[in-house]
Amino acid sequence: MNKGDLINTVADSAGITKDQASEAVNCVFNCIESTLKNKEKAAFIGFGTFSTSERAARDGRNPATGATIKIQAKTQIKFKPGKALAESVNG
């Protein structure tokens, strides 16, 4: 499923136009994004939790040449599925 498929599914399920569904889906994505940018968790009971963690700078190796390279620090996004989601996927 991609974003377009999700918009179509939301429009059909909720009985709204595709434009309204697109606005709703974009709003949800933007809310999750802004929450993560603020280093906060976005938790949805039964579905899962989006969170961030800081990854420190470190030295790495170029596998082709073996040369040492610097890998910059970054904020990593994590997702932990909720119990209900995990159970529905695993049967």
Which terms summarize this structure?
3 helices; three-stranded antiparallel beta sheet; single chain; 5 strands; alpha+beta; HU Protein, Chain A; two-stranded antiparallel sheet
Structure description:
This protein has 91 residues and is an alpha+beta fold. The protein has one domain: IHF-like DNA-binding proteins (HU Protein, Chain A, Irregular), CATH 4.10.520.10. The chain contains 3 helices and 5 strands. The strands form 2 sheets. A 3-stranded antiparallel sheet has the order 1-2-5. β3 and β4 form a beta hairpin. The mean pLDDT is 96.
In brief, what are we looking at here?
It contains three helices and five strands.
For the biggest sheet, the summary is: 3 strands, antiparallel
Number of helices: 3
Total E-strand runs:
5
Q: N-to-C SSE series?
A: HHEEEEEH
Annotate the secondary structure layout.
Layout: H1 3-14, H2 18-37, E1 42-44, E2 48-55, E3 58-61, E4 68-71, E5 74-81, H3 83-90
Helix pairs in contact: 1-2
